[in-house]
Specification:
Largest sheet: none
Order of helices and strands: HHHHH
Radius of gyration: 16 Å
Strand content: under 5%
Number of helices: 5
Distance between the termini: 59 Å
Number of strands: 0
Helix content: 55-70%
């Protein structure tokens, strides 16, 4: 293997079987969500990228919701990290869910300022 891999952003199936798909990209998006709401902390703080890291993920370990993350976004993030890629949301589903969240905040903001 040549070059470095972004192991902390890779889905389980990518780490173990070299399977890459839009659903493995959804896993990575979940990590990016975690980064945004943790205010750019490094994912999986304190964990080394080694065989034990991969085993932890296979055994169900996931990062917890950052304190600043709303509960519903935290659920979306957790869904991005489902073990079975078929159980993860699609990007279209993520766009719809996040868009609805933004629209609800925008309409609340408009009624508050009126």
């Amino acid at each position: 293997m040549q070059g470095l891999l972004p192991v902390k952003w890779m889905a389980i199936e990518s780490l173990t079987d070299w399977v890459f798909s839009s659903q493995s990209d959804v896993w990575s998006f979940g990590v990016v969500l975690w980064e945004m709401f943790s205010l750019a902390k490094v994912p999986y703080p304190g964990l080394q990228c080694d065989d034990s890291f991969i085993r932890r993920l296979q055994n169900g370990y996931r990062m917890s919701k950052p304190e600043l993350m709303p509960q519903d976004i935290g659920q979306l993030m957790a869904n991005c990290w489902k073990q079975d890629p078929r159980e993860r949301p699609t990007f279209s589903q993520l766009v719809d869910a996040i868009g609805a969240k933004l629209e609800s905040h925008q309409s609340v903001g408009l009624t508050t300022h009126a």
